[in-house]
Please model this.
Amino acid sequence: MAKNLVIVESLTKAKTIGKYLGKQYLVKASIGHVKDLPKKNLSVDVDNDFKPVYEVIEGKKKLIAELKAAAKVADAVYLAADPDREGEAICYHLQEELGDHTPTGKKGAKNGGPKIYRVMFNEITKNAIQKAFEKPGSVNLHLVDAQQARRILDRLVGYKISPLLWDKVRRGLSAGRVQTVALRLIVEREREIKAFQAREYWTIDVGLAAKKPPVFSAHLAKKNDENVEIPNEPTAKAIVDTLADASYVVKSVTNREKRRNPAAPFITATLQQEGVRKLRFSVKRSMMLAQKLYEGVELSQDEGPVGLITYMRTDSTRVSSDALDEVRAMITERYGADYKPATPNVYKSKKDAQDAHEAIRPTSVLRTPESVAPFLPEDELKLYRLIWMRFVASQMSPAVFDQTTIDVDAKGKDGATYLFRATGSVEKFDGFLKVYVEGKDQKDEEDDEDKRKLPAVVAGETLKFRSIEPEQHFTEPPPRFTEATLVKELEADGVGRPSTYASILSTIQEREYVRREGGKFFPTELGMVVADLLLESFNDLFDVTYTARMEAELDAIEEGKIDWRMAMGEFYERFQKDLDHAALHMTDIKRMEVPTDQICEKCGKPMVIKWGRHGKFIACTGYPECTNTRELPPEDGVATEQDETTYCDNCGRPMVLKKGRFGQFLACSGYPDCKTTKQLGAAQKPQDVPLDEKCPNCGSNMVRKYGRYGEFVACSNYPTCKFVKQKTIGVKCPNCSEGEVVERRSKRGKTFYGCNRYPDCDFVAWGKPLPEKCPECGGAYLIEKFLKSGPVAQCPNNECKFKKPIAPAVEAVVQ
Model:
């Protein structure tokens, strides 16, 4: 029987850790936080040192009772949540609920309960787990204070400012301490783009040939040793004319060796950026996949679940000496001694980096992407390959190039000397580029130019003129933010933490403050109005510099340098002044209305765009005397007026156009007797197909219908008769041997299989049962599972590891 209780925060992590600890340990999961500030009120006593009022999260009470029961019979409890602020808060709240039985020495713990320890590890491997349990510690209260301070800050900002938006704009909107700063950056960038005035400029390139190939081009760089600007076509034409019949002579040839160093191993922010650039993953998706790789992946029957990467929430580039030794040995063996630098590459972390964790790297570089490919879903494999290549490349030798610069002089008819320059390079040693090339946010034309090959020439050599090409250009506005560039900007400004960026970007999109098109962020009109209103009264609170300073104070709280209550007091004093000012002076939304070119047909006054409960609409500026309103034309080409009448699929009555919380839709005119609705502009589902089959309940014809999860067969007399034919797979129930196994759907749409005699028989399986006994343990059936290598038949018994590829004969039986 287990003598020790271990609590982690996820089921996957519990499964992976459990195999390393043995039978003396019972590993359970808290499934995230167990306590939080309740949503029903502010839950922060601002007059009593900002004391928070926590409650056990709804739905976690049964789990807490189970953990308490397990703790009562345990000799010791080990809290093993993630090694960060959130993980420390989870451990602290668990310790509160299980009893404050912190270790007091060999005689036992306070209050007579089990000893409670905190264990931390940066990677979920056997060695790391065992080391952590050899020297357990206690909960770090400074980390807990930092998490609590951040939680209270966010609660105060959200609960105090959001009601102002509800009053001025519409209910349901929210303001966040960091999300508003992200919105501000997007809105300000959009206004820069709108205000941008393009400026014309020209470039001139000449095509030249030396004694040996290749022909190359050089761009005009200087006139009489001064940088030259060509603002318009007449100026460009004048230069071209003055260079007619000019002689082009090599002024100088410069050769130098250029070394390009590899990028540092991933931290959270750079992983998120490269995920967007190289894999087209959203920041949120990259973090979800990284979490799975960290918590453990089932690799083989012998090895079981293994954590493939180190902890993915980190801003440190530090790498352990063991990992460095392993990767350097692997580089020598796989790529050769030339690719391994004489000493390990060391990268400098940013000034405010928390060095508690390593950089993101594979737990073992010997687990190559090729070796784990059969066991990983496609997207997890892509991210693992990216992390593996980046880490290996970070410890390889620099790439070496021979860079050549050719300067060419030409005498113009105006007596001026024009200097043309060509730059190119030849790769001499690929170094780390053999494994990995860092992604870029925009195409770098200079890099493309540097990669050109140039002919061998000498100073004083006369070149043959081939062509001269003046080309018009226009300056471009700053680019809109992508997820990668916005994360980069937030990180550079010190706003938020990389672990929060995914939720920040999700929130501003879910609130419809911004939309994403072609991978770029565009602020909506609602987002611009909200940003303007908030910055009018809270410009200092949502200032980039101030927000970064608050993050620095949270870091100082974590390090024990300042008291969290003192930091909260300074913040709230300033915040309360802004709140008081905003309540009295915040611009009413009618002053923020967007003008239109439409005139009210009732009173002749201008019409403007307003915002209400169900979105934006056009209203008369004469309100309240004139209450005339109109619906805005829908976006994306969805018509507001139907070209022809649409009829209800359910009762045959005409459908009418209505507008609700989520925009326009079609509704049956027979409401409330018929509540059928259709989304405007969406592809309509196929009509029901009558079948030559009778309903066993009422005798009506059966029809093939199309629902949320695909097609199914049901009675045509719905809703009077609600019979739905269950989809059988031709396999007898292995549990009762009487019923048949049928395909079903869970509430979330996931397919599972069960006996059609339910509830008399409670057989259920998530994999498709196959009518074949397990040859190893004698189990009644196997289940179908799909791997990258193809479908396999696997024993559902966790203690039996039997697995085999599905042969055509088995497929035929299943079909």
Remarks:
- Residues 103-109, 635-644, 808-815 have pLDDT under 50 and may be disordered.
- The radius of gyration is 34 Å.
- The chain has six domains: 4-139, 149-196+479-589, 200-261+400-474, 268-397, 593-630, 730-814.
